[in-house]
Write a structure and sequence with these properties.
- This protein is α+β, with helices and mostly antiparallel strands.
- 18% of the residues lie in helices and 34% in strands.
- It has helices at 2-24, 58-64, 69-79, 169-180, 395-409, 418-426; strands at residues 46-51, 93-98, 106-110, 115-121, 129-135, 139-148, 157-160, 196-205, 211-223, 226-233, 242-244, 265-267, 270-275, 280-284, 287-290, 296-298, 303-310, 316-322, 326-336, 345-346, 351-355, 365-372, 375-377.
- The strands form 4 sheets. Strands 12, 15, 16, 17, 18, 19, 20, 21, 22 and 23 form a 10-stranded antiparallel β-sheet that branches. The chain has a 6-stranded antiparallel β-sheet with strand order 7-6-8-9-10-11, sandwiched between helices.
- Strand 22 and strand 23 form a beta hairpin.
- It is globular, with a radius of gyration of 37 Å.
Length: 427
């Protein structure tokens, strides 16, 4: 019985193998070759970077990179939602992403350090371009810094959160302090060795560590025997952000003490000054500030320009008419700022020109005159009114802010030179 069963199973398996060979086995004696089809890999896209040159148009740039008039128009339309194509400045980087042999399908425009514009094509069938604006996210931090003056603001011996300042931070701090106390301190004449300051500085920092913006929240400045305080306070009644002292009085005056941020007086107001060019004694009815050629010159007060351009011995000069029959003059400019002309309204601190040596001058400097009722007067001896104090309805809010920022500011000691510290100990 077992023998018959084994025989039957064997015959069944043999049949199956025979049928399989008949269905799928080789048909003929030849051997069929396997065909291999190679699909070429498209070349990777490349990125070409172009920097805008002075006098160059966006149309010229796009044409050089294979984009026709229709595509240029579509890209300009997409860009205009975020930035006018005509406002692209020299030096702006434009990144073209393209496959070799084809027109760019993607474009990146680095508008500035904080904004990047991305553009992409919908394809040949849809010639429209789309745009997206990305803004760099910033982180806010607050630094506590103190400085001990050696000879000027720039070379102060710093303490506090110095490591976070980064490159150029020292100069930015000096510049901002000069702006806060521009009406109280002549930083050339009034500064003394071992003067000191401490300040609370709020910043907006980009991911790469660069600073987008910074503002002084509060600052104490010890100048000789006086200590000045400035606190930043913003409210709807003021046209601009103001700094106030602890009593709520505004620091900003009707006129700046000087038309340059950091100044060096080379010749003061003097009725019997020996003129270096004319080689004779004659009145010097203004103040000369030594500065490098091209240094920005700022209007010391708001007013309307009465004269701008060439003016004899003054060279290139600007005269501004202010309220109360006051005029200011700025002479020997290398050139007048763009947009500044007779009849132009200018604001206090606005750049109106740049230091030069035009006219009757031997070296780059700014000659500054202050006229009242048509006669030159010494601006260093004027007592001019200040901006409005903190309004009565804002006093409570100002007091709360004052307590908060000053308590934080004064957690950092005011720097004292070792000799001063020893003298105070002895006393």
């Amino acid at each position: 019985m077992k023998t018959r069963l084994s025989t039957a199973v064997g015959l069944a398996l043999a049949g199956i193998l025979l049928l399989g060979w008949a269905a799928f086995g080789r048909r003929g004696d030849g051997r069929e070759d396997v065909k291999v089809v190679e699909v070429p890999t498209p070349p990777p896209p490349v990125t070409l970077v172009h920097r805008m040159q002075r006098g160059e148009t966006l149309g010229d740039v796009f044409e050089d990179h294979g984009l026709g008039p229709a595509a240029t128009h579509a890209i300009a339309e997409a860009m205009s939602e975020f930035e006018s194509p005509r406002r692209l400045r020299p030096g702006v980087a434009i990144h073209f992403v393209r496959t070799p042999g084809e027109s760019p399908a993607r474009i990146r425009v680095d508008l500035d350090a904080d904004r990047t514009l991305h553009l992409w094509s919908g394809g040949e069938a849809a010639p429209l371009w789309s745009a997206r604006l990305d803004s760099v996210r910033v982180v806010r931090d607050t630094l506590l810094l103190a400085g001990l003056i050696r000879s000027n603001l720039f070379d102060a011996e710093l303490s506090g959160d110095v490591d976070a300042l980064g490159d150029g931070g020292r100069f930015d701090v000096a510049h901002r302090i000069a702006q806060v106390f521009a009406w109280q301190i002549d930083f050339w004449r009034d500064l003394r060795r071992n003067d000191a300051y401490r300040l609370l500085l709020e910043r907006e920092v980009r991911p790469d560590g660069s600073v987008r913006d910074a503002r002084v929240l509060a600052v104490d400045f010890r100048n000789d025997r006086r200590v000045l305080t400035g606190v930043r306070f913003e409210h709807a009644a003021a046209e601009r952000v103001e700094y106030y002292d602890e009593t709520g009085e505004a620091l900003r005056g009707q006129f700046l003490l000087a038309p340059l941020d950091i100044v060096r007086v080379t010749s003061g107001f003097n009725l019997r000054r020996f003129h270096p060019v004319l080689r004779r004694t004659r009145p010097h009815l203004g103040v000369d500030y030594g500065a490098a050629r091209g240094t920005p010159v700022r209007a010391t007060g708001a007013g309307r320009v009465s004269r701008a351009g060439w003016w004899g011995n003054y060279g290139n000069a600007v005269e501004i008419r202010h309220a109360n029959n006051i005029r200011t003059r700025y002479a020997h400019l290398v050139n007048v700022a763009r947009g500044v002309a007779a009849g132009t309204q200018v604001e206090q601190g606005q750049v109106i020109g740049y230091v030069g040596d035009t006219g009757l001058a031997t070296a780059p400097h700014l000659h500054y005159e202050f006229l009242r009722n048509g006669a030159q007067v010494n601006p260093a001896r004027l007592q001019l009114p200040r901006a409005e104090p903190v309004p009565a309805e804002q006093r409570e809010r100002f007091a709360a802010l004052l307590d908060a920022v000053l308590s934080r500011l004064r957690s950092l000691p005011m720097p004292v030179h070792p000799t001063q510290r020893a003298r105070r100990t002895q006393d």
